[in-house]
Structures are given as C-alpha cells and as structure tokens.
Amino acid sequence: MTQPSEKEALARAAVGAPGPQRRTLGRRVRSTVSAYGFLGPAMALVFVFFIAPGILLLILSFTDLSSANFNDPWNIIGFANFERLFTDPFFPKILRNTVFYVFTTLILFNLGLALVLALVTTSIPRRTGFFFRLVWLLPRLTPSVVYILMWRRIGQADPYGIYNQLFPEVLGASGGNLFLGGSPWTFVILTNGFIGASFGMIIFTSALESIPKDLLTAAKVDGASMWRIIRDIKLPLIKWPLLFIATYQTLSLLTSFEYILLLTDGGPGLFTTEVWALTAYKRAFASYAGNSQWAFGATWAIVLVTVALLLAAVYVKLFKFNELIEEPRIENL
Amino acid sequence: MRRKTHSRTLIVLTMAFALVAAACGDADEQTTETVIVEVEVPGETVVVEVEVPAEGELVTLVARCRAKPPIEDGRCNNLLRGVVEANTTLEADGDLRRVQVEIIQDNPDAGDYVTEFELASSTGDAPDIIVAAAINIGTWAASGIIADLTDLLGDYPEFDDITPSLWAAMELNGRRYGVLQDAEARPLYFRKDLLAELGWAQDEIDSLPARLASGEYTWEDMFDTAEEAVAAGVVDPGFGWWPRPKQGPMFLAWYYGAGGSILDDSGALVYDKAAAQIVYELVDDAADRGIILETRLDGDWDSWHNGVAYGNVLFWFGGSWQWAEWAELFLQDLGGEEYLFENVGFGPFPAIAAGANVPTTLTNPFAYMVSSDTEHLDLALLVISKATTKELNTEHAVTSGHLGILTSQADYEPYTNAVFLSEVAPILEFTTFQPNSPFFSAWTEAYYLGIAGVLSGDLTPEEAVDVVVDQLGNELGDNAIIVG
Fold first, then answer.
1. Whole domain around residue B113: which residue ranges?
2. Residue A273: its chain B contacts at CB < 8 A?
3. Buried b / exposed e across B330-355, counting CB within 10 Å, b at 16+?
4. ipTM over 0.85 threshold
5. pLDDT digits (tens, 9 = 90+) for B27-52
6. Does residue A284 belong to any structural domain of this protein?
7. Same domain for B353 and B243?
8. B381 and B287 in one domain?
9. pLDDT digits (tens, 9 = 90+) for B151-161
10. Surface of B (340-369) touching A: CB under 8 A
C-alpha cells in the first residue's frame, strides 16, 4: 500500500473526508505507553492525595469513630452519619451559607475583579501594569495566617481594629465593631476575594497578552469602541481561561475554610458565616471539651467531595470542556 | 610463614588485652555520668543536673503543657524542678534509673491542643505527661489514651496532701485518671470606680461581694445596675455586662444557677429545658436592655480583655487567673495588682431568683495526665509527685492567679500572704464542676448554641430551647435525656 501524498491529504482535509488508518499497532502502543509514562507521576499523586484519602473518608463515614473510641476496632454503623447530617437542624443554613459564599466570591472577585484587573493592567504601560499585578499578588506571597491576622487587625472591634478606630460610626455600626462583628459576611468575602482575584488576574492577563495585536489594531482602525473591543474580541478569545477559572475557583472556594476559621470561626451568632468545609473540619478536629467526631466529620467531607465532583462534571458538560481538549483536526489527517 | 602468623596473633592478642584493660580502667574511674539539662522558657532558664550511675539508665520523659507565658510557666517548669527530688528518691531506693524531663510548653487554642494529643496518641507519638483541663478526662479515659492511675496513686505520699473534694474532677466511673495541677475560681468582677460614678455609696460597693455570696444581690439586680449605668452614660451601650467571648465552662455555671442538673443517677446527660430557658431568657433580657453587644460572643479575646481591663465594662464574668493577666500584661503602667484592688471587686456569680436562687461559680481544674503509651508510668508519677509540693504549687498559684490544690497551703505563709488568692478562695464554697463524660462535648456545644443564637437575635429563648433539643437528639440520641 502506497502512502497518500501530501496533496491528497490536504485535499481530504479540505472536504472533511477521513484519512486512511495509518497508525500501526506498534505506534499506538508506544504512544499509549509514553502518554501514561508522562501521566504516571501526576496520576500517582492524584491517587495518593485524592483517591486514597477519598476511599478512607468513605469508609470512615460508615463508622462511629471519635476521640472517645478510637482505640477500639472500627464500628460500622451504616448510613447513620448520613441520616444525622441531612437531619441536622443547621444543615439548610450551612448549605445556604456555602452557596452564597462560593458564588458571591466567585462572581464578584475571583472572576469579576480578576477580569477587571487583567483588562486594566494590560491596557496601561507594560511596566506599570506589571507593578500593579505584583501588588495584587502580595497576599499570595504572604502566609495565610499572617494575611488573616492583618485583616483581623483592620476589622476587629475598637480599639484593636484600625478601621473601627478611625471610622466607628460609618454605615450606622454601633460599638465600633463594623466588620468582624457587624458585617461578617462582607469581611469574609472581601478577605477571600482580594486574595482569590490574583489567580484569575494572572491567567487572564496571560490570555489577553496572547491575543494577536493585529486583531485589536484592525478593530481600532474600524472605529470600534473600547467596550466593543472587550465584548466582541477580547472576551470571546479568552473564553477558555474564563471557563477554566470559573470551574477551578468554584471547586476551590467550595473546599476552602481556613480564612473563615481564622476570621470568624463561623460566627458571630448562630452559624452566621459557617460553611460546609468548616463544619467538616470542626466536626473532625475541633471540640472544646475534647470529643472530636472524626467519622461524622468525614461524612460531611465525603458529601462535599461528592458535590464537588458532580459540580465538576456539570461544568465540564456545560462549558463543553471536551472541545478544549480535543485534538486539533489537522492531527486527524 | 609460621613466624609471621605468630606475630599477627600476638599483635591481635595484645590489642585485645589493651582494649579490655582500658575498658576496665574506665569502669573503675567513672562510676557516674552527670547530665546537665538546661531548659529555656520565656524569661527563665531552668538548669537541672542529673547524675546517672555507670550501669544505670537515663530516662527522658516528655511533658506537654498548655500555659500562658510567662505567668503560667510553672505548669511544666515545676516538673523540671521536681526532677532533682525524683532522682534523689530513685537513688535512695537503689533504683539505677535516673530521669530527666523535656518540656514542650506553649499556649495554643484549647481545641487544637486537645486534638494534637489525640492525634499524637493515635500514632504512638504522645508525650509521656500532658497537662490539660480535667474536662478532657471523660473522653480520654473512655478512649484509653490516658492511664488509669487509681491503683498507683497511693505509692506517692505527696498526693495525700491534695484537697480531697477536688479528686472528683479526676474521676470517670470511680477511677482516677489525673493528678490535680491547679484550680481556679470564676468570679463576677465589677468596677468599683464605675459604681461610685453611678452614685453608689462606698459601703454599698464594699458590701457587694457579701451580698452576692448571700444571694441578696441577684442577676436581676446586676442587670438593673448595668442598665442604669448605660442610661447614665457611665458606660457605653453594650458595655454594662459581659460574659467570656466564646464557648467555655463558665456558661454551665449559669445553667446550674438556674436549677439545672446535668447527670442523672444512671450517669446519662440531662438537658433541663426549664433551666436552659431561664438562662436563654437572661441573655435575651441583657440584649434587650442594651447592656451587652449582640456581637459579644465573637471569640475576640483581645477586645474583651481590653474592655474589661481598662475599665470600659461595669460587670463581667471572668476567671481568677485573668486577674494575674490583667495585672501583669495590661495594667503594669497603671500600678498592676494595686490598681486592680483599688478599682475592681469580685464575688460569686449572682443568684438567679427564678432558678436555684443560690450563687454559683465553676471550677475546671488542670491536671497532670499520663499517656497510656508511656513505658515509664512510675517515673512519670514520681516526677509529678515531686512537682506537687506546697512550695512549687504556691509559686505557680501566686504567679498565675490560680488556686492552690493542697491542704497544706491553707496555712502556708507565702500562699496566705497572696491577698487576691485569699480573697477569691471563699468563692469556691459555691463551686460546681463539669461532668466527665464522653458525651459532654456535644451537650455543651448544643447548649451554647442557644446562648449564642439568642444573643445574636437569631432565636427567641423558646426557639433556642427547641433548637437545642433537636440538636441534642441529632447528636446524642438516647445519650441525652430531656427533662423539664
């Protein structure tokens, strides 16, 4: 069998006709082996740090393991922990809080502010843009506990909190306790948002910088306004980074709790800022009188992991991520 | 060839003989080895010399302490100081072992500290000795991570000096799992200067502790006074009366004061709805009167200490150990303890007229516990016993504002000379304890939800009771009995 000429291949591609099956078995095996070889280390990490703990969590969630009985053999109690979770009087509130926290932070900061920052810093002189992006990255370079302590010193009640000391009566707050005491959600979302925005900012900046300049120049020559350029050229061309950040940050926010733990510990009041991941942590590891409920904490965690996986599947389907990772058509010739 | 072999044999034999002779010589000359243990803690270095016999063994015990530096450093440092005595005892007994103690002492959050010990125990890395609140005994004894000391305590005469009534806090099902380290009182503090500003006569102010102790001055009276102080501008709105800013043992004393009991005869945990509702109504009343900030239970100790130490709050519930903190860490510039005596008074929590109508307080002693993984239980108890002396315990008590735990301290001059300890100790007449039960953690967290929910305005007192009952049913099922 003679190999088809380059001209023939191009012609087939032009009419969308399939090419002859040229890959031999040996090449396919080699290709598969090398693919798995490259993927191997990452897959091993995923197995050790995600799949194996996930399996352990699942097993643990069917037991009654706690500080009070962890030296005994594991006692399997079926779905009792799941029943307890879904009938918890505060389950609806914690669920609402989680949805509110994840999507408010995501839309306003991790996507919204990140996009604004990327658009602004790529529209000003390059060195100035770089400087501002660097400033926005500072929280990422700061250990999270230090970052939160700095925010606490801003938002604490008078006289410790700088804000409440300087502006005790702004926005009608009483007792000089605006942020941490008076508007804890504002504070939690701002704190998470400012650090969360920097990740999207870097990805969006990189995507925006890679847009061919001639497209933008042509649009300007045609008289397009700045808004039209953003709406009709820049945003469509950074569609994939936008969808990726939306997905990644949703999952990240869903499982993040350390900032809330350090800022408000889920309070003040009755589960005011308590989110799902924080509940899982508290159940498993935080107990004033010393009885940590590890199995029940694992139940909260495994349900959260399941929700996250389902959400990831929905995102992949909704955003058609298979189109992003499909082989370029030229490779199929 | 043969001559060469003989020479080699001779050399080897000579060397072997030389080595044996050298070893014997060393054994003759060196009968003991001195090990100097130097431990630095903030503001202090404790140096301990340990002489180990040549055939003996030097055992290192690890002790873990949660202590606020520098005032509570005595918790672990006293163990170090006990090492010399412990080794003297070992030598006198002809025991060839010698002991030294390595301490790990800092001041983490109580929950983190507890979790750390539990996780360390699960991997076999637990310290030999842990100093923790007695309330942990219920869970730790049930899980078997701390040793049952009941049958061994009698071997150490020092423990006979411990105040008998305090042993109850060390017990689960009649067995003892800890040795008292310190105890505390939880007073109601009040500002004398603010009461005077409000128009109270000096004798009214001076007699307030006695009126609190007799039950004459009640919660209602306290709230009335706080409301008057806010109305008169003596304190800001929300600064009339403060409890501690987060979950803690203090809130259980309110429940006891309202007539609630927590253990039934079978040892099951009880939630008395009527008593709990009285507590929630008090909190609701305080919020309605504007004498406490609705956000006061925000867990912010910084702003809490600032408010109470600098005279911004009229009444507050605190701990005796905080007296030392305020004097040492906040008010040094104003005169320390002298300033406190001049401006701050204290007594038991007032009686709740609608409840048991008796004053209350609560003691949550700290205890030395020994990990069940330790290979040196007897040495651990020996060192603990040598730290349980009136000299060492008094030094810790006076420095940290804790109460003594030994009967011999009652007439020990350095202890009786400590004015604050002498004056606060009578509050123990009204003291209560938390129950040692593996289920108490869930109980107290559910009960506290009601307090937090009412104060923040999320729940009415009636709703709080219902929510807590639901929560207890969900958390403890048949292990909690609802009454009232």
1. 33-177+366-404
2. none
3. bbeebebbebbbebbbbbbbbbbebb
4. no
5. 444 466 777 766 655 456 677 778 88
6. yes
7. yes
8. no
9. 999 999 999 99
10. none
